[in-house]
Amino acid sequence: MNAKIGNESTENYPMALQPKSESDGIAMSEEEYLRTEPDAEVRHEYIDGRAYAMSGASTNHIRITANITREFGVHLKGKPCEVLMADMKAKVAKDYVYPDVVVVCNHTEKNGITDSPVIIFEVLSQSTRKRDFTTKLILYINLPSLQEYVLVEQEIVRVTVLRKMNGWKPEEYSFGDSITFESIAMTLPVEEIYDRVDNQEMREWLSQNRVYESNVVAGGGSFEEQPEGQSATDIVDGG
């Protein structure tokens, strides 16, 4: 399967779609998938005529999706766009996949399916990484409505954003960075995405913040006394 990222063929692209083994998934028709999926005990994604069972999510995965949903929900309250998660399927031609979080605008469908997402989030894991960076990437960038595709690591603090306006070139963000989502005029610090997430990098960052807070208290200062334009995070990070 050859597709394009911007004007570039994915044939030699480093994240190009790899052919799947015929032994993977369950072969079925689109009609059969749509008929059986609502009552299935395990959710399935339907790609190239085969249904693939989805694995359960880790606690960190759940925290990340909850953080994104909360922050976007507050920003979009009262606006025509909304944030949805969990059981919302994205339809691309005859394929159906479950993004971890999706932003849609003027959504009216009531069957749990959208073919016009504006932003899609996927939280990466060992079992889903390859598919999120390959198969789903190719599917998503062929959605005319999609403006941003966001991949969030859970074992480290790193967010990769691919934007339509930049030819789907990946841009990485970490501690101290803020991500601007142009399609909905929203800017979000990376730290908000990782609130309460338990991984080594977050533990080290929190430890550094506790040391800084202790030094401020011992010195009789306060966070309000920081130099103008500089946050506690900036000082901890050496900014």
- By secondary-structure content and strand pairing, the structural class works out as alpha+beta
CATH class of the largest domain: Alpha Beta
Q: What's the pLDDT, averaged over the residues?
A: 83
**Would you report the number of β strands?**
16
What is the beta-strand fraction?
25-35%
Please indicate the count of domains. Answer: 2
- What string gives the helices and strands in order? EEEHEEHEEEEEEHHEEEEEHHH
Number of helices: 7
Based on CA atoms alone, the radius of gyration comes out at 20 Å
Account of the protein in words:
The protein has 239 residues and is α+β, with helices and mostly antiparallel strands. The chain folds into two domains: 58-193, tt1808, chain A; 200-236, no CATH class. Helix content is 27%, strand content 26%. It contains seven helices and 16 strands. The longest helix is centred in the last third of the chain and has 19 residues, at 200-218.
